[in-house]
Amino acid sequence: MGKLTVRALRAVLVVVLTGTVFVQALMLWALISGNDPEDGSLPLTPLRVITILGIGTAQVAMVCVWRLVTMVRRGTVFSHAAFRYVDAIIGAIVAAAPVWFAVTALNAPGQRDDPGVTVIMGGVGLAILGVALIVLVLRMLLAQAVARDVEAAEMQAELDEVI
What is the C-alpha separation between 49 and 122, in angstroms, rounded? Predict the structure, then answer.
């Protein structure tokens, strides 16, 4: 991975993390201060709590991506240490799905005239779980690469002994 790619990815991660922390702080302030006028169309307090939790799942994934990029730059990504970050990303994505389903459930009563919106939102929740499955497949590929790397190191050690 080139230096420019790493810098660009890290810049994006910093901007997105900063923005999400700002949004979480605003949501938290709205919850704590109680200065939020609700017109009754949507239950805003549960939506704010869900938003804070949902953003938290994205933040966990972004921090883990940062760590994995660091490991790629150092050439240590093909190690068992990388698995904890990939597992955390999978966990964050899986945790995001029920958060999204909660948003769907809160939004559903307002969509009685157009239930297609709720169906589409449910489909988005399934797509989120699909992303978790894709990352799980990538984890399996990482496991194979780590196993091959260990095997290659053992063969190199045996070859060094012979020579």
Answer: 20
10 Å Cβ neighbour count for 32? 8
Three-class SS state of 41? coil
Distance CA 48, CA 40 (A): 14
Label residue 37 left, alpha or beta by phi (over 0 means left) and psi (-120 to 50 means alpha).
beta
Decide if 31 contacts 48 (C-beta within 8 A): yes
CA-to-CA separations, 102 to 28, 91, 95, 106, 120, in angstroms, rounded: 19, 17, 11, 6, 14
Q: How far apart are CA 137 and CA 131, in angstroms?
A: 10
| The token pair that represents 53 in the structure block | 């939790």
Half-sphere exposure of 157 (CA within 13 A, CB side): 6
Tens-place pLDDT, residues 75-110: 888 889 999 999 999 999 999 999 999 999 988 887
State both tokens at 77: 């990504």
